[in-house]
Write a structure and sequence with these properties.
Layout lengths: L18 H17 L7 H19 L2 H16 L14 H15 L2 H15 L5 H21 L6 H16 L9 H14 L1 H17 L4 H18 L2 H15 L10 H25 L2 H16 L13 H17 L11 H8 L8 H12 L1
Length: about 375
Amino acid sequence: MAYTVISGIDETNTEKRSLSEIEHRIDIHQNILSSWPRFHPQRARELMCLAGLRSTHFRISASRNQLDQAILHLTEALLLPSRTGLVPNAALPLIPLTQVLYLRWSNFEQPDDIKYCIKYLRYLRGQQLQARQRKNVTTFLVLALAGSEREGSMSNNVVENIKEMTILCREFLTSEGPPVLPFEALTKVITAVYGIAGELLDQVIECLREANARFPSSPHLSFMLGNSLALRFSRAFMMVDYEEAVAILGRIVLISPSSSDYPEDIRVLHQRSLKAIADSSYHRYYTYGKPEHLEEAISHIHTYMGSIPLNHRTTLDFPELADLAQSRVRGYTKQLGSHNRLDTFDFSSLIASLTEPNSSSIPREQWRLHYQALSA
């Protein structure tokens, strides 16, 4: 998991630091702390710097001991009285503490970590924080609540947690200025809402409509709205949701992913949009069963599979294609009205039409040959 800084921990240019340099700096800070009295006025700040270095050490070494030590340092800093302006807010060490707790939970799955992380973040939201700190704390709370729903460590409050996530997202998406809620956080909200309660998904969709109206040029918000509508279609099967979802996602697909001008996250959105359209078209066919829906579903799946590099493409990328293949074969045999001599004819072109991304239909001449073989 990427490490997201939400506090003033000293981690400037940490990506360029070597492990030996970090360990050297840890030794320096430890020596400073050991030479100071327990209530030195700068001790809290020094502990926070040391915790930041240990967190950085973990990013390189993956040593749980470094996270454990960072949590101890931050706990001590939290318990110290704030006697100078160096730590202006007594709750400030609690911000990186929740961050490190979440980091330890996400890597080592200790349920108590996520429980206390949520407890501390809820407390912090009631404190006087800078605007940026408050937004980061709220974002982090959404991620932690989504994590607790996955973990099941707060299973008695799952619906309440998801309602809280929905409210927090609405706060972000309807606030002044561009939406700053990370894509990962909003994705987790929608996934959790979809799995628990449909009425909450309705609320998220309406919130996303409002956000898209305010920021129509945001591809991330467009994807979240289109994907949410696609999810709702997969459980409610309302064609209006399908049509709107495909229209929104289709606009993202029009972005050329091969252009070097587009960052990696836009390329990911492009492929995820193709996947969502393919999923929805598959659900539409099996809901309504129309032949034209079958052909469109196969076409959309081919398009999605074509977006996957050949060296990464497997039959597991879209197992539903096998179901659609069987449906197409059943449709052919039903229309031709005979099952005689099926085992004597080479159906390689029919198989190709289902498995090759660039093939969408069987040529008329092949139809004639299939018909002759089946009716002979």
